[in-house]
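Recap slide: Cytochrome c-type biogenesis protein, sequence and predicted structure.
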Amino acid sequence: MRRLLLVLLLIAAPAFAVQPDEVLDDPALESRARDISAGLRCPVCRNESIDESNAGVARDLRLMVRERLVAGDSDAEVVDAVVARYGEYVLLAPDRTGVNLVLWLAPAALGLAGLVIALVAVRRRAAAPQEAPLDEDEQRRLDEILKS
């Protein structure tokens, strides 16, 4: 049972594309590199971090991140260098400022607008005048029509 659980956990673990020759000797720098590359999108793949991608450009980006860390750059400087080269598209979680703020707020605003429209429609329907019930003659005529 424990082996099965272990196998399931290994299958569910994220698959990293980092090659053994890319791994830094310093565990602290390697940890920082993994943290940075987990937040960077592969320019070729859709919504896949460079850590998970097997694309050549993702390998180049992983190597660039590690080279800059070895050179002494801070995490922010490394990310800024990658963004300067590839644009904000490479950020899996773009900044929440400027034009990007619209992208972050649009889903909530559209959801709220939909909720308001639904509430207005329900209230209008509830406030609409109700039709008077059928009188005896109309009910009898309707029953005759339905029988035939």
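The chain has a mean pLDDT of 84.
DSSP finds six helices and no strands in the chain.
(End of recap.)
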